[in-house]
Amino acid sequence: MVDLQAVAQAMGELDEERLKELLAAFVAGKPTAEEAMQVISACQEGMAVVGELFEKEEYFVGDLIFSGELLMGAINMLKPFISGSTAEKIGSIVLGTVHGDIHDIGKNIFKNMSEAAGFEVHDLGIDQPPSAFVEKIKEVKPAIVGMSGVLTLALESMKETVEAIEAAGLRNGVKIIIGGNPVTKEACAYIGADAFTNNAAEGVKICQGWVK
Ligand code: B12
Description:
single chain, Rossmann fold, 5-stranded parallel beta sheet, globular
């Protein structure tokens, strides 16, 4: 198993060479999905450090962009170990990053993992208004709606989306899960979602419980 702290540190320091070196050795050992997820969590920790340094104005937008590229590179290396497809579909999910927010790395991790678990995922993409969720729910009648967002303002967009789903008379037919860095128990209650998480693997478990 790779040194998770070293992975988090390399990500936080935007040390591309070190990160690639650590990940190359890790994937050569053919990790399990669980181990790959631990490495993703370590990368997530490193991204939090990037965020903190951005707030302190030690990093700038260019560094945020580079950190996103680094993380995408890491996810691409780890994807073969967390992805997969089961022939039998266990349920469907309408997923999107909510209005005003263009962050999608976390959403894409959740998408890969839930597809690997047998869900059919209809990914709306980023910066999606409430109407896009409502239209897609009408079209594909999913069991679950997943909303992603990492900006504080995303919480308000999530609330508006739940309200739009309610106003369209669709709320009783779906379970709603929200994910992303700022979601909390309190935010979940305010937004009117059924569950929240900051961890894609936990999100998949919650969704599996709903379609049992
Ligand atoms: C990379 C990054 C970017 C990249 C994003 C690239 C991309 N394609 O996504 C770019 C450069 C585009 C970017 C832009 C901006 N960013 Co930015 N960004 C980040 C950074 C460093 C990492 C985000 C990330 O990918 N984290 C790693 C992923 C894996 O974590 P995650 O999203 O939480 O996802 C996990 C779980 O939450 C869960 N999950 C996620 N979604 C879902 C959904 C469901 C349904 C489920 C079940 C689970 C789930 O699964 C994932 C794996 O476990 C964060 C710092 C931070 N602490 O997050 C700042 C951060 C989010 N950004 C910030 C800011 C300010 C901006 C900009 C406004 C900067 C600017 N001045 O232009 C713009 C915003 C533009 C917009 N309108 O959205 C702030 C937000 C502040 C706030 N409180 O709102 C942060 C917190 C940095 C900071 N500390 O100041 N950013």
